[in-house]
Amino acid sequence: MSNIFEKNGNEIRVLSLFSGCGGMDFGVESAGGHVIFSNDVFADACKTLEKYFPGADIRNEDIAGISTFPDADVVVGGYPCQSFSMAGNRDPEKDERTSLYKQFLRVISVVRPKYFVAENVSGLKQLSSGTFLKEQLDAYGKEGYNVSHHVLNAKDYGVPQSRKRLFIVGVRKDLNQVFEFPSPTHGKETKKSGPLKPYTSHGEAIKNMPLWPEGEFYERPDVEGNFSWYYMSRNRKAKWADPAFTVVANWRHITLHPASPVMTLTWSNLADGWKQRWDFSSEYEHLEANPKRPKLEHARRLSWRECARIQTFESRFTPVGDTASKFTQIGNAVPPKLAKAIFAHLFSGAGLVAAPAKPTKVR
User: Fold this and answer.
1) For the domain bounded by 12-186+333-354, which CATH number is listed?
2) Which residues contact 47 (CB under 8 A, 6 or more apart)?
3) Residue 339: pLDDT above 80?
4) Contact by Cβ (8 Å): 38, 14
């Protein structure tokens, strides 16, 4: 039957590449899989993996130097994506990270898993009219996999954060299956979608956490009020009841806590080469709906623990490393809850359908 997830033994053996601090790996385990091998070049990330996945073979080295791998039913990985990111330089032809998918492809060719799941930023789909994405899809197809891809937004699956990512799922062609992505569970209801749950509030997700966790967020004392005019000039404060803006890996650019006061533009003179001045007002728009919500007298960025909660890591999750390293690991991760939605859909067989039959050639 097409909707049966195929595995060799009693457990679903998963090999994880470019693992970071384990966002995908936590999702795999929550969905019923077992991570047997993980790899990353970032030492702190591997120490975090060792802390939470003690049974896995964890390699802190360049994947290019690893030639043998354990047998696995599934290979997963989020190969580095800065060259495709809308926030990066976006010149993938000059960025060596562009070819890292070839290492992912090499591992697939060695292990020959029945399934694979790859993750990248959504910018990969638009860049150069999609030529870099097509190159990857074609390569996976030539390697013997039926491939499907889709841009998912984490907020559509109950994550209290707006975070768009591209997922590529491959199914080995001899299984005669293809993967269909899970339908959103959250959002605005339409005739096509049917009943959906409302988006998850990031304010509610973190409301019971310490209001001023000293040392767990970035402060910039060299500028007035810890915030540069450029930081203030961008919309850095998501509404309490809405999902958060994307959690990024750079702690300086982390957005504001939703209990911070409203920002106001005091003056602007960009045309004459001047900058702008933004100030925090005495207004708190999040209190209008519920005056009992907490409020910050002084605005601050989100803490790393709050970012981890917004990313849907468990409350006990504490990555190894200094504060900046914690932010890097958390910001680079796939939200475990989003990963679980994908892997549960795959492992249960619900997302597997019969591959379309090839048309018969007429002679």
Assistant:
1) 3.40.50.150
2) 320, 321
3) yes
4) no
